[in-house]
Structures are given as C-alpha cells and as structure tokens.
Amino acid sequence: MRTYIINTLLFAGLFLTIASCKKESTGYQPETMAPLSIEFDNIAGDANLQLSTGNYKNAVGETFSVNLLKYFISNIKVTTSAGTTYTVNPDSSYFLVNESEAATRFANIKVPEGEYSKLSFVLGVDSLRSTMDISKRTGVLDPTGGMDGMYWTWNSGYIFFKMEGASSAVPATVDANQKFRFHVGGFGGYSAPTINNIKTINVDLTAGGVAKVRTGRNANIHLLVDIMKVFNGTTNVSLANNSQIMFSTYSLNVANNYAAMFHHDHTEN
Amino acid sequence: MKRIHWIAIISLVLYACGKKDVISTFFAGFETPANFPQPVYRMADNPVTEAGFILGRKLFYEPRLSRNNTISCGSCHIQSSAFTQHGHDVSHGIDDRLGTRNSPPIMNLAWMPAYMWDGGVFDLDLQPVAPITNHVEMDETIQNVISKLKAHPEYPGLFKQAFGTEDITNARMMKAFSQFMIMCISSNAKYDSVMRRQGGVTFTQQEQAGYALFQQKCSNCHTEPLFSNNSFRNNGLSISAVNDEGRYLATLQPTDRYKFKVPSLRNLAYTAPFMHDGRHLTIMGVLNHYTDNVQQTPNLDPLLQQNGTLGIALTDAEKAQLLAFLNTLNDKTFVTNKLLAEQ
C-alpha cells in the first residue's frame, strides 16, 4: 500500500515536471489574451487588385475593371493544433473589409496565446445579428447607413459582398455606363424563408504556416482573396448576361463562387 | 383600454378649451385596447415615454429628414387621411418623384409583424430608414439627418429628455420614431364600442347583416379586431405595367409572386385610394373587383377560386350591407386626435 502511494506520488511528480517542461518549451500562456490579425489581401488572379486602373479578364473572356469592393467578415474562430477551438466574442467579431481603405484589410482580434492551425470565419452577417435590436448593431453593423450602402433598407438585411466595376461586355441597353454591380446578401429570412448566402470559410494554416500567438508579438494570418473566383467557379459568370446581380436567386451562384476566393498564403509570426 | 378612449376625448375637449399642456397631464403611455390582442412589437426594448413620444412626433413631422428639407413622414402619411396620402395612387415624394406603391396607414403598427406591402421590413425600428434614404421619397442619408438635428436648437434638448443625454444617435432616433408610431392606435370606431359593449352602442340591422356577411366572406384574411391577419395574398388584381411582384421581391419564393400584405379594413373612409398601387378609388370599386374582376394570375388565392368560380359572390343588397358594416370601422377620434398631430 505504502509503495503504491509512493509510486503514485512519483508518477504525479514526474507528470507535473513533464507538463511544466512542455509549458516552458512552448512559452504559451493560454489564460493570457494576445493579438492576432487576419489580413484580407485582395488580388485578381496573379495580380494585385488595383481599383479602377487594373484590367482583368474573366473565364468567359470578358475584360473588366473593379472600382468598389467591400465585404463583411464575422464570427471568427481559431483552432489550435491540439484541437481546442476559441470563438471570438461576437461583439468584437464583425469587420467590413473595404478595398479603398487600406486599414480595413486587417481584422484585429484577441485570442488566447497558442499555436493555431485552423481559422474559420463567416463571409457575411449571421441571422442572429441581422435581426438584433438596432441599439446593439453599432459601428460597421449600423443598419441606418453607417457602413455606407451595405444594407438593404427596403428588405431588411445586410449586403454581405459588394463589388462594382465596368466592362465593355455589359450591354449598354442594360446600363448606359456599362457598369456591373454585384450586391450579394440574404440571411435566410426572418419570418419567411428566403435565400441564404451566409458562407462559412474554413482555412487550414498548416501548409502556409501556423499562427503563433504570444503577448508582445502580433501574428498575422495573411490571406490572398482572389476576386477572379467571383466570376470563375462552378458557375462562370458572364457580364454580358448577368451584370446587375442583387437580391435574386442568381446571387446564389455568385456566393457559391466567392466562397472559394480565400487562400492562405503565409503567416507572419 | 377605456382609459385611452377617454384620454382622447378629454384631450379633444381640453384642446377645444385652448389648453396647451394636455400631454403632460394626460399622457398614459402605451396601452393595449381591451378588445385587442397583445402587441408583437418588443415593448421591453423600447418602452414608450412621454418625452420619447414627443420627440418621435416632432421627428415624424420634420422636413429636415429629406434632402432639401421639404418632405416629412407626415407629407405622405397625413393624419386626416388616417396617415395615408389621400388622392395619390402611388406616393408622391421629393422633387415630385413618384413611387410605385400606395402609402399605407401608420395605424396599429405594434400589432404588425412586418411592414411594407411586401413585408420586406421586419422591425419597426428599421422602417424609417427606407423612406428617408429612398431616392423617390426623401432621398437623404441618416448621417446628414443626424447632422441637421445636432445643429438644431431644440433636438439636443429633446433627445436629452427622452434618452438622458444630448447624444443624437441613429438608434435613438429610430426608437423615438417607433414610440410615436406605435402610439398611433385606432381602436375607437363604432365597431369597437359595440364589441366592448360601451354605452349601449349597437349595430343597426343593416350593419349587423353586413357584419354577418363580413364574417362569412371576408374575415379569413381581414381578421378581427385588427382586420388583417397580416398574411400575404394574391387577390386577383390584373398585373399592371410596372409588374410589381410584391412579396416575391422580399422572399424570392416563386409561390410569393404577386402577393401583397392584407391591409386592415379600419378607416377606409379616410384612406382612399385602395390596393397596393391605389388603383381603386372607392370601396364599391373594391367590392366590384371581388365580385366581377378577379383575374387568374400566378398564386391567386385559393379562397378566391372556390368551386371553379373566380371571386366572391355578393348581391347588390349584400354589398350595401357590407358597406354599412365597413362604415362602423371608421374612427374619427383617430384622425382628429391632437396628440398625434403636428404641433
């Protein structure tokens, strides 16, 4: 009996030593919150996206330019290599990426110190937040227009993704200035079902580099966001046929396409 | 409920006597009329206060809400027309621009789960943003409105009284609008007195016959006591040149094409013209539509095509009885209540 207790204590001691050694070797304090940023670096195929000045060609051979690109990122979650998932507080987990404002390319969050190999977020705004009392929807989520045109007032709901530009492929009979407008939204409906374009994006960071989140550092998960994928994918969108895509069933095709536009390039630790 | 009824009457009397501080003396807040169900508006998130109501009323009649300071909510929602735009088939907004739909009444909104003819807005607190920013209505931005209100000599003080500080925020403005709008309660028509057995008021024989017909032929959709079940229906109107697809625009469900919200039958004497596009000028015109002119269009309501016949069968005598009953739904206290008027 005595031997058993001694052995148990020895084992416990050994275990504690190993555990503390391991902790020292990684240096992570999971009870401490540290900064992490996710960078949404918008590109067009193999070129950096240049608003208004860049010319690009989609899969059906139409040349176009982009002069506006905005989208909502929300509900960010990160998962450690050991499989522990941390969900960012919903009140600090909504971001509006606007290509014309450089600072908005970063979603700055705080997560427990640790090594993260998986990232998940929503492209859009979830139905809970979409139907919350107006006083709880401030900042980029203010439905009265604070986020500048990312809300449908006549059919209450956020525009999740907005891209506008010009193309000679747009028939002048459809738009005299040959502009195209993609305004994609739809959270599934409040009292009656309708389209749901909320997309959850899962990104594995293993190949491009895990995020090592520590106090005093600012790990940055650098994503390349390829707007060519908006046009090219399961559905190849033709501006000659579909240049004004708003609240419509066709928008489902665009959302299915753009769900594939995020690629993890690297992580700066 | 009796309280509101008497408050309204006492208010009128006092106004007639020339007193100015009626609200302070008699403001009773939001009360559910005795013959009404519980409201669906989330009262707990926005309790009606006297100061909030006064602010909301001032905002409702505020032309600064529009780009060139010419149009207020009250421009297209006129109290004497039960808060509709009498004489206009479709709403008439800024720079004489025209919309595609008829202004619906601001009436009993606390019992309505969705707004607009297509139900696209599901929260009353979000509703005012639509007309303020709409190109053909007020054509303004909320940010500009806030700037104008901040520069105004009275609004900062009114916001302080309503919400505790002078901060003018979007959310506070919308909450104040809601406080005024949900107080626009119409529940003092003859029908209500009959239902509440007030003062020995009874239907005439003609009205009673009309009521029986109504219950038999209309009440499936125009359900008492709000006279709408708030559902969306295609009532067989011919498809007009603008091809307004109604509820479909909000849901994209093919089965919602050409459906519109069932409007209340209260205050029809004040709210002509009728239907989502104001195509019918008189109630008789509407009744004639149901008897003679229901069109077989996609999603036509099953109730309007029973036994292989389109529409609702009514004789001329029955129409007269129905008209008599519908007249009992007109609420003069509502369209003359000084509490709801521009001050």
UniProtKB/TrEMBL annotation, chain A:
<dbReference type="InterPro" id="IPR046863">
    <property type="entry name" value="MbnP-like_dom"/>
</dbReference>
<protein>
    <recommendedName>
        <fullName>Copper-binding protein MbnP-like domain-containing protein</fullName>
    </recommendedName>
</protein>
<dbReference type="Pfam" id="PF20243">
    <property type="entry name" value="MbnP"/>
</dbReference>
<feature type="domain" description="Copper-binding protein MbnP-like">
    <location>
        <begin position="35"/>
        <end position="246"/>
    </location>
</feature>
UniProtKB/TrEMBL annotation, chain B:
<feature type="binding site" description="axial binding residue">
    <location>
        <position position="222"/>
    </location>
    <ligand>
        <name>heme c 2</name>
    </ligand>
</feature>
<dbReference type="InterPro" id="IPR004852">
    <property type="entry name" value="Di-haem_cyt_c_peroxidsae"/>
</dbReference>
<dbReference type="InterPro" id="IPR009056">
    <property type="entry name" value="Cyt_c-like_dom"/>
</dbReference>
<dbReference type="InterPro" id="IPR051395">
    <property type="entry name" value="Cytochrome_c_Peroxidase/MauG"/>
</dbReference>
<dbReference type="GO" id="GO:0046872">
    <property type="term" value="F:metal ion binding"/>
</dbReference>
<feature type="binding site" description="covalent">
    <location>
        <position position="218"/>
    </location>
    <ligand>
        <name>heme c 2</name>
    </ligand>
</feature>
<dbReference type="InterPro" id="IPR036909">
    <property type="entry name" value="Cyt_c-like_dom_sf"/>
</dbReference>
<protein>
    <submittedName>
        <fullName>Cytochrome-c peroxidase</fullName>
    </submittedName>
</protein>
<feature type="binding site" description="axial binding residue">
    <location>
        <position position="77"/>
    </location>
    <ligand>
        <name>heme c 1</name>
    </ligand>
</feature>
<feature type="domain" description="Cytochrome c">
    <location>
        <begin position="205"/>
        <end position="330"/>
    </location>
</feature>
<dbReference type="Pfam" id="PF03150">
    <property type="entry name" value="CCP_MauG"/>
</dbReference>
<feature type="binding site" description="covalent">
    <location>
        <position position="76"/>
    </location>
    <ligand>
        <name>heme c 1</name>
    </ligand>
</feature>
<dbReference type="InterPro" id="IPR026259">
    <property type="entry name" value="MauG/Cytc_peroxidase"/>
</dbReference>
<keyword id="KW-0574">Periplasm</keyword>
<feature type="binding site" description="covalent">
    <location>
        <position position="221"/>
    </location>
    <ligand>
        <name>heme c 2</name>
    </ligand>
</feature>
<keyword id="KW-0575">Peroxidase</keyword>
<dbReference type="GO" id="GO:0042597">
    <property type="term" value="C:periplasmic space"/>
</dbReference>
<dbReference type="GO" id="GO:0004130">
    <property type="term" value="F:cytochrome-c peroxidase activity"/>
</dbReference>
<keyword id="KW-0479">Metal-binding</keyword>
<keyword id="KW-0560">Oxidoreductase</keyword>
<keyword id="KW-0732">Signal</keyword>
<dbReference type="GO" id="GO:0009055">
    <property type="term" value="F:electron transfer activity"/>
</dbReference>
